[in-house]
Backbone:
């Protein structure tokens, strides 16, 4: 991975100004002395061979037993898994992992039940407490469907639970019903949990190599555990420096549609980690080149409150040559590869936006595979923690999330 930024917006002097603060934050993370330090379990990522093997065994059983796995969870309990599955799967071939419990739309639920129809399915319900409204409703519905289809005993064999180690409504039920269970680590919050059983079981069911995913993350951990030449720290510094210069919205930009849900995961990671105490950079995303024909005008000529972080995948797995063009006006495209055209669009857009006072940060990866995606996940997690501390907030809590729940429960008569 390589990080490139335009130094006319953020200078070497800007970077050096924060070097002492970065040193302090580096020590806070390593010594577990900062706010929210009880949730730093993801920093020293571990490859638990026995747990990984159990995840693979369960994933193979699910694939044998079922046409579909319905993953029931919301926020960090589903976005990470969906990001990886969408990024590394065929764009159009039907996927065997479906998602529920991330909304309360009756149309979505009925469409999903109709789609599954008479097919065999299992469920993986992910919730630390078991009382989060959206997953709780979906679990009750799909559990009932399993019992109706297979009977109580076989239904138990098709329910996989990822929950708290010791307590909570879901843990209690898992023990009583003897469901196959995995643990949400006590010291890892939901939005940092994709590289735990929370994400790894659905990802493995999708047929994705979780060993390579973990290897990429582990190598990134080794790369970013020291201060010198730490690109995760540099990214955090650039973001906070741009915020001080009035750039309070960050757009995650991709030129590969498969990264749409990776952006959704990134939005939650940074939005929930930084948006508190009246502070934070607003995280949003665009899928180019499609969004250049919708959002491009605003980005280029609108309020100068934006900066962009662009993910550049250097080499696609497959490419395609543009056929000969009959029109003289389009002949310049003849014989060029789609990857070349896509990259020229990216480079031209970056230049135009930078000239239009929209700073760009470029993150280059060689190809979109398990190793590089694992690396990117760890990179952004580490950068997010550092960025939150630079901002002066606790990057690991989300007090504002409870406000809507309180009002909703009142209206429901709880």
Residues:
């Amino acid at each position: 991975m390589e990080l490139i930024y335009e130094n006319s917006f953020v200078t070497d002097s800007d970077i050096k100004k924060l070097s002492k603060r970065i040193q302090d934050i580096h020590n806070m993370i390593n010594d577990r002395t900062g706010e929210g330090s009880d949730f730093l379990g993801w920093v020293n990522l571990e490859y638990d061979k026995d747990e990984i093997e159990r995840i693979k065994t369960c994933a193979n059983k699910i694939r044998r037993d079922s046409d579909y796995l319905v993953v029931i969870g919301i926020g960090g309990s589903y976005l990470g898994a969906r990001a990886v599955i969408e990024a590394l799967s065929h764009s159009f071939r039907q996927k065997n992992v479906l998602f529920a419990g991330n909304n309360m739309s009756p149309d979505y639920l009925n469409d999903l039940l109709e789609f599954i129809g008479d097919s065999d399915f299992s469920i993986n319900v992910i919730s630390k407490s078991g009382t989060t409204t959206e997953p709780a409703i979906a679990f009750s519905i799909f559990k009932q469907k399993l019992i109706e289809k297979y009977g109580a005993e076989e239904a138990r064999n098709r329910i996989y639970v990822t929950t708290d180690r010791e307590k909570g409504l879901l843990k209690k039920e898992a023990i009583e019903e003897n469901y196959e269970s995995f643990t949400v680590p006590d010291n890892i919050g939901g939005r940092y949990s994709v590289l735990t059983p929370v994400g790894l079981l659905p990802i493995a069911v999708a047929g994705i190599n979780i060993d390579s995913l973990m290897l990429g993350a582990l190598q990134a951990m080794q790369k970013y555990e020291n201060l010198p030449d730490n690109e995760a720290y540099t990214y955090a510094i650039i973001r906070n420096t741009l915020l001080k210069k009035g750039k309070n919205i960050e757009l995650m930009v991709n030129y590969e549609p498969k990264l749409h849900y990776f952006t959704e995961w990134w939005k939650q990671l940074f939005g929930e980690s930084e948006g508190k105490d009246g502070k934070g950079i607003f995280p949003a995303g665009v899928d180019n080149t499609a969004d250049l024909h919708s959002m491009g005008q605003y980005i280029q000529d609108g309020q100068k409150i934006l900066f962009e972080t662009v993910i550049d995948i250097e080499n696609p797995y497959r490419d395609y040559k543009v056929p000969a063009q009959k029109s003289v006006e389009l002949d310049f495209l003849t014989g060029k590869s789609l990857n070349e055209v896509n990259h020229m669009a990216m480079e031209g857009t970056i230049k135009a936006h930078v000239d239009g006072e929209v700073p760009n940060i470029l993150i280059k990866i060689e190809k979109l595979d398990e190793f590089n995606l694992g690396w990117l996940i760890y990179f952004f997690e580490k950068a997010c923690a550092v960025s939150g501390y630079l901002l002066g907030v606790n990057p690991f809590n989300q007090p504002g999330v409870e406000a809507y729940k309180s009002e909703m429960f009142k209206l429901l008569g709880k």
